[in-house]
Amino acid sequence: RAEPRCRYFGRCGGCSMQHLEPSAQVAAKQRVLEENLARIGKVRPDIILPALHGPSWRYRTRARLSARWVDKKGGGLVGFREKRSSFIADMASCEVLTPDVSALIQPLRELIGLLSNADRIPQIEVAVGEHLTVLVFRLLEPWSDDDAVIVRAFAEQHRVQIWEQKKGPETARPFWPDIAPELSYSLPEFGIVMPFQPTEFTQVNTGINRALVSRAVRLLAPQASERIADLFCGLGNFTLPIATSGAEVLGIEGSAELVARARENALYNHLANARFAVDNLFEMTPEKFAALGHFDKLLIDPPRSGAIEVVKSLPESGAPNRIVYV
User: What is the pLDDT of residue 70?
Assistant: First the structure.
């Protein structure tokens, strides 16, 4: 056991394991995985690789902060929801957000209190890149002209870019400054830079992502003569590092927007051997998989719901000779 570092631990629902020393947290999660494999899958691994460890504090580069005007408190609340509650925790800092974002919580609370549409801003999405931090305000009602002046001043003072989102993620647009460096993260081991939009999916822990990509590519061991598929490829987080081997790589993803971003990232990194296609992998069939042609190797990185239809679609003969499932 460990003394929780966060003063809001127990009330804030954002973290639930700070009472455990970080390496014990990882060990507990590994044990859950082992038990699930044995009890549900009826399998036991021959080898268990060492767990990946990364920064335990100040690492979170993505977050969705709730916002609410609370008359009883005479101002705005910005932060994570309380444990098992729809109320927002009364917090002024966060130990897992990056330091610059943690330091913005109290100023954001004050900003909400100055805006005429304070009760119409349900959330603020945070995206931190290597050269820029973006705050995406979900607006159920537009800012007034006076509000816009206040928001611009906030962006200038805190050196962030403000975006506004009126409906779904596809409606997110830069507000101020309207021209800024693009969000990006890097994978130095592979010489790759990955630009992304603030509403696009990226891993929240940059250090762990680098370690994860490095291990996955080493296990896959791509060769220049091979044809490889990266399923649920997103914006190319694994596809492009695999492509640096010289292998022909096909990334497949259900989101047309993410595939467009992946193609842009392949061009940005001069990787013409990385190609991408849009397909709903939750509806994969043996016939559709066969139509993609033979793959020497396969990397699968699905969301939590898994890749059962992909697994069921693999051919019994001529299947990839190596599969890395993240």
Answer: 86
Tokens of 267: 């061009």
| Average pLDDT of the residues in 165-192 | 96
The 10 Å CB-count burial string (b at 16+, else e) for 16-40 is eebeeeeeebbeeeeeeeeeeeeee
Cα 195 to Cα 127, 185, 186, 237: the distances in Å are 12, 7, 9, 11
Question: Looking at residue 118, what DSSP letter applies?
Answer: G
The pTM of the whole model exceeds 0.90 = yes
C-alpha span between 265 and 235 (Å, rounded):
7
What is the SS3 assignment for 313?
helix
**Strand bridging mode 274-278 / 248-253:** parallel
Chain centre to alpha carbon of residue 295: 27
Report the distance separating Cα 280 and Cα 295, nearest Å: 19
Pair of tokens at residue 95: 């130990």
